[in-house]
Amino acid sequence: MPTISMFYGILVSMYTLDTQKHHLPHIHVRYNEYKIVLAIPNGEILEGQLPNRQMKLLQAWIELHQDELMADWFLASSGQTPFKIDPLR
């Protein structure tokens, strides 16, 4: 699972060929012991949880990088490695 971005202890990943379970474009996020799966480009929670502060940071990052996330999803869903996306600064 390639990590496509990291910021403030938040790791954002996207699996290649990961279309079976959630059936929607999505990202996997880890922060300490928390794991969450979010739909893209809207940030809807599909599974898991994250502390409120980190969730707000992540939602801001998703908002800024919607187009890049969707482009990465199309790459990953066809078996290609997604590109890195700039972290939140």
Overview of the molecule:
This is DUF4160 domain-containing protein. It holds the Pfam family DUF4160. InterPro entries: DUF4160. This protein is 28% helix and 28% strand. It has 89 residues and is an alpha+beta fold. A 5-stranded antiparallel beta sheet has the order 1-2-3-4-5, with no helix packed on it. Strand 4 and strand 5 form a beta hairpin. The mean pLDDT is 93.
Annotate the secondary structure layout.
Blueprint: E1 3-7, E2 10-13, E3 26-31, E4 34-39, E5 45-48, H1 52-64, H2 66-77
Antiparallel strand pairs: 1-2, 2-3, 3-4, 4-5
Supply the key terms:
single chain, five-stranded antiparallel sheet
Instruction: List SSEs in N-to-C order.
Output: EEEEEHH
The radius of gyration over CA amounts to 12 Å
**Largest sheet: number of strands, sense, barrel closure:** 5 strands, antiparallel
Arithmetic mean of pLDDT: 93
Per the principal axes of the C-alpha atoms, what is the gross shape?
A: globular
The SS-based structural class is: alpha+beta
Strand content: 25-35%
* Low-pLDDT windows of residues: none
Please work out how many helical segments DSSP would assign. Answer: 2
Total strand segments? 5
Distance between the termini: 24 Å
Major beta sheet, strand line-up:
1-2-3-4-5
* Helical amount: 25-40%
